[in-house]
Write a structure and sequence with these properties.
Radius of gyration: 20 Å
Strand order of the largest sheet: 1-2
CATH class of the largest domain: Alpha Beta
Shape: globular
Number of domains: 3
Largest sheet: 2 strands, antiparallel
Structural class: mainly alpha
Helix content: 40-55%
Number of strands: 2
Order of helices and strands: EHHEHHHH
């Protein structure tokens, strides 16, 4: 029984395609660049061969999230919202300026703030799909979408498909 599968990060893929030659089942040979998990045996040959480090082996089941104190989560969520505002402000400044130096600076600020925010989200458990925090957030967004174009049906489908390890 396989306990892990291969996944590809398209941003890191250098299109060397060595994975195509080493995969014993052809799971990496796809039109859409997404590894076919129904064919993947979890051997890791593709990940070992990938020169760009674009393929990772991930477990089929994740352990429960480490518990955080409510006070820590409350402060983290406050900082997450603050960072989101900072990123949006930097992006707006970048989009509205004709000054190339200011544009480049604000684009860099927006990206760096996003990275910090992703770390905060991950540490708070919001980026772990199996965590109670993620489920609570998806429930909230499904009931009160944060934007008009928010994919409510996708959030509901994720809630159906991904178990809540904290439930």
């Amino acid at each position: 029984m396989k306990t892990r599968i291969a996944v590809r990060n398209l941003r890191l893929c250098t299109k060397d395609c060595l994975c195509l030659y080493v995969c014993p089942t052809g799971a990496t040979d796809t039109e859409d660049s997404i590894i076919d998990i129904s064919k993947c045996t979890g051997c890791g040959d593709c990940a070992d061969a990938c020169p760009g480090g674009a393929i990772s082996m991930v477990p089929l089941e994740y352990p429960p999230q480490q518990k955080k104190e409510d006070s820590v989560l409350t402060e983290s969520y406050r900082m997450i919202k603050n960072k989101a505002t900072q990123e949006k402000t930097a992006a707006q400044i970048a989009a509205s300026t004709d000054d190339d130096a200011l544009y480049r600076l604000m684009t860099a600020v927006a990206r760096s703030v996003r990275l910090v925010n992703e770390d905060l989200l991950r540490e708070s458990g919001y980026m772990l799909p199996q965590s109670g925090n993620t489920h609570a957030l998806l429930h909230e967004w499904a009931e009160n979408p944060p934007a008009d174009d928010f994919p409510v049906e996708a959030a509901r489908k994720l809630l159906e498909l991904i178990p809540d390890n904290d439930a």
